[in-house]
């Protein structure tokens, strides 16, 4: 089986079922499959070979994105979604890295496409020519070239195979208990793998997908109330907005949170607004896919843990020499599963750093407890060495964000002649108060080891985030002087 190979079956067996909800429109499986076939025919007219082609998608959040995307991947080709928010410089660099055979563009990308890249096909161009269905059972074949969010550096291109996502689909259904009768919503841009994964999974299993052009807490509340969204993929910032709503929504809904830690206070507030909800958090990465997940019961018992492994995932903790470590000891996290990526584009060195003989690692550090639940301490590349002591920023940030009026906290290591690196904190407050800093320092004295405590605090606003909701740490470090003035 390959992704999308059931679309023809769905078009025959459930032709009138809604495949995509979009604004005030619905697209049935019969219509969706017909559009996919028309785009396949149009693409095939542009080439003389059935050999895998790389197709850049310069298309916004609209049905044409998924129609072209499924046309590409069911041909056995590779889809490369582009982000309309990229600067011309970023898009040019990524276009050179990806080196696509064709470019398919929509009106939202017209300026970028017309002036910088030769467009092979516009989304208005479809063909009614008959497409001969070919057997495409090469499950290990690549189908998707995506880009990391760049929270720790420049985005890298990564390759995914049909096999890796199909295995992830099965694991997700087992862990989260959803299926073809659900309406799945992933309100982020489809050019990002989190939202694209949700959409792809929904249409692959014959469920319905609710497509949005942007996130709106008010709109999502209404959709959940009217049962037009029963499963929601979201990042914590979205769920935080939902948790601030004043009305109680009795409808049943499953929230799947990833990208960053969903803090207990937000989770409790979300539960108050949606008393009949199931809330799952999961830890993963572009390179790893699903790794662990946590239920409300797990997070109540182990609030700092990211949960237990997904079905089919083995987690190993090893020291710097590769020796396995016992429960409770911090070390490098290695993952073994069928969900892993194929590698980075044009970067064998970086690929080998991730895909090692011990398993896959992205440099995260953590430990397993006696029950096999994983706790992440931080990322090796973010580690601060102050006075010879190792400090993991994420560990301190979690503690600072337990203070009710702290909206965001970022721990940075600033070069210092005496300490090597001096720990400083950038704090974004929910509300201004003359007692903010006093309360935060008191909290640190009680909960943070003295060598890990910030030596200076800076109140800031407008901290930058990556598209997946993580703090863009490298952007802050690159302009640190501007943040601490």
From TrEMBL:
Residues 8-344 form the AMP-dependent synthetase/ligase domain. Residues 395-470 form the AMP-binding enzyme C-terminal domain. Keywords: Ligase. One of its GO terms (molecular function) is medium-chain fatty acid-CoA ligase activity. InterPro entries: AMP-bd_C, AMP-bd_C_sf, AMP-binding_CS, AMP-dep_synth/lig_dom, ANL_N_sf. One of its GO terms (biological process) is fatty acid metabolic process. The keyword Ligase applies. Belongs to the ATP-dependent AMP-binding enzyme family. This is Long-chain acyl-CoA synthetase. It comes from Pseudogracilibacillus auburnensis.
């Amino acid at each position: 089986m390959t992704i999308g190979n059931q679309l023809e079956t769905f078009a025959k067996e459930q032709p009138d079922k809604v495949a995509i909800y979009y604004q005030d429109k619905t697209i049935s499986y019969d219509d969706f499959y017909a559009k996919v076939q028309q785009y396949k025919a149009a693409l095939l007219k542009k080439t003389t070979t059935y050999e895998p082609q790389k197709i850049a998608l310069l298309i916004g959040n609209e049905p044409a994105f998924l129609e072209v995307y499924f046309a590409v991947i069911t041909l056995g080709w590779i889809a490369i979604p582009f982000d309309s928010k990229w600067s011309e410089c970023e898009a040019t660099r990524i276009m050179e890295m990806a080196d696509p055979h064709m470019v398919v563009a929509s009106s939202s990308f017209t300026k970028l496409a017309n002036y910088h890249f030769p467009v092979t096909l516009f989304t208005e161009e479809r063909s009614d020519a008959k497409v001969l269905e070919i057997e495409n059972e090469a499950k290990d074949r690549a189908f998707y070239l995506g880009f990391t969010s760049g929270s720790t550096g420049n985005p890298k291109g990564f390759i995914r195979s049909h096999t890796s996502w199909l295995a992830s689909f099965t694991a997700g259904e087992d862990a989260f208990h959803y299926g073809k009768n659900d309406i799945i919503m992933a309100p982020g841009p489809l050019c990002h793998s989190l939202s694209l994964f949700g959409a792809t999974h929904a249409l692959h299993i014959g469920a319905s997908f609710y497509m949005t052009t942007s996130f709106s807490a008010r709109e999502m509340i209404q959709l959940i109330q009217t049962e037009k969204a029963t499963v929601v993929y979201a990042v914590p910032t979205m769920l935080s907005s939902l948790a601030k709503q004043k009305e109680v929504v009795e409808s049943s809904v499953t929230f799947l949170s990833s990208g960053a830690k969903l803090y207990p206070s937000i989770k409790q507030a979300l539960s108050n607004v949606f008393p009949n909800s199931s809330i799952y958090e999961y830890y993963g990465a572009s390179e790893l896919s699903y790794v662990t997940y946590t239920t409300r019961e797990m997070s109540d018992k182990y609030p700092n843990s990211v949960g237990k492994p997904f079905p089919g995932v083995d987690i190993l903790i090893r020291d710097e020499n590769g020796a396995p470590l016992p429960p409770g000891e911090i070390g490098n996290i290695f993952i073994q599963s069928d969900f892993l990526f194929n590698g980075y584009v044009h970067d064998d060195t970086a690929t080998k750093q991730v895909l090692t003989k011990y398993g896959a690692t992205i440099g995260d550090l953590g430990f397993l407890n006696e029950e096999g639940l994983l706790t992440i301490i931080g990322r090796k590349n973010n580690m601060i060495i102050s006075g010879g002591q190792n400090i993991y920023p994420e560990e301190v940030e979690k503690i600072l964000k337990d203070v009710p009026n702290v909206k965001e906290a970022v721990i940075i290591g600033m070069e210092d002649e005496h300490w090597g690196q001096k720990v400083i904190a950038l704090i974004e407050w929910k509300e201004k108060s003359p007692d903010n800093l006093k309360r935060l320092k008191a909290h640190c004295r009680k909960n943070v080891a003295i060598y890990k405590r910030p030596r200076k605090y800076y109140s800031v606003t407008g901290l930058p985030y990556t598209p997946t909701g993580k703090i863009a740490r490298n952007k802050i470090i690159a302009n640190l002087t501007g943040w601490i003035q």
